[in-house]
């Protein structure tokens, strides 16, 4: 029967499908990624030119093969080999695996009452931007379908300079002490001896920094695995100070809501997709934009006045919690649209550098200590990875004129300020500062406490999770992560979960008992036999996918 179906399909395709002689790629799917090379050839019927050495010297055909020749007399060979071994640049410590796209931001509502930032004022105004999507702890060639933070780093090329907003796909962060950042990341990386991820590390860190439980539960829930970058919301997390042209100040949380509809994956669904395409998120984004199904997000601001802040019974600057309903109002600002894939992934996505300290007039920025730590860490990371002139790389370069006294160092240096004075202050008409009249004269000071508050985690479990299915999947996912965790750490963690909600800890213990029994039994079976049922499921999945795809 299956052979018959394929015969019918083949006959239809040969008669009615596109012909290779017409210059089309023989692929009837909507997957555009495999067609890119054929499309390039269609655009360039002849070779685009003569290959050259890096110095621009044309390469003779006889020098394109080095066998039985003096390799030291071939500059083409020297260029090729020495450049190849030097191509990798230092990888990002976090968010190593990423994918980028260009687009624009369009203002749809008047928010001049709250901020004087030019990028967010003037209905109909469009500002070009670049977004780098990534997944938190994966290396540059990692699996996108792992349950961990997904990020979207946004660079707005505004008239007032670059504005960078660094976001993740859940609205609560994992720590509020900037000193915890390196250890939070290390706890999720591989063990230094085994080079295998050890969940003892993550659970031990979590139980010793229990304010992390709120974000941890978000990640272990359905919200922790979106159905691709296009169908996830993302949040800059901090409470931003903003001001209008009169110097009036407000506190704002910024939210990007997908206009395609929020959609998530269960663990089993993610495993099934990852078995076929671990780069599904990137492929999905590429295909959508290339097929002109441009993804978009609604940009909102949750707003508080300074007087509102004084009457709150919680700390609105705490990045590990959400703002309580009824204590703020939400205003829509505009739309973010992605409509262009970079021609070179390395040139744009990997060379991009985002710094949360890149702010513009009208947005003085967050006052919390986590943000202050990030101001230091991100700049230092970019200096290490890309050099002191990383802001002069094309994808990071502001669109307006840049006048600065920071010059020289590693390329690119561009015009390097030519013959302008190289010191400040000077009396020879070098660049001078200005005075922003609407800039607030007072500075916000935020004090944090170190007390573990399980209230946000309790609220998430009982009110944000919508049904029993979502609560059970959260418990199942948390139980699975405990399988190889040391008993002392496991019991400490479960005790803390009981402080969040007794129903949740009951579900986790019940599921853990089932998983533990199955794991103990499986440990006595060789790995090939143990995973044969999964292999059979994947085989059925692939066959079903192909059948449904063509019919």
From TrEMBL:
Endpoints of the signal sequence: 1-23
Needed co-factor(s): heme
One Gene Ontology molecular-function label: metal ion binding
Record keywords, A-Z: Heme, Hydrogen peroxide, Iron, Metal-binding, Oxidoreductase, Peroxidase, Signal
The keyword Oxidoreductase belongs to this UniProt entry's keyword annotation: yes
Keyword Glycoprotein among record annotations: no
Domain Catalase core: 52-432
One GO location term (cellular component): cytoplasm
Chain sites annotated for binding heme: 378
InterPro entries, A to Z: Catalase, Catalase_clade1/3, Catalase_core, Catalase_immune_responsive, Catalase_sf
The family this protein is said to belong to: Belongs to the catalase family.
Alphabetical list of PANTHER family matching this protein: CATALASE (PTHR11465)
Protein name as annotated: Catalase core domain-containing protein
Organism, as annotated: Diatraea saccharalis
Lineage: Eukaryota, Metazoa, Ecdysozoa, Arthropoda, Hexapoda
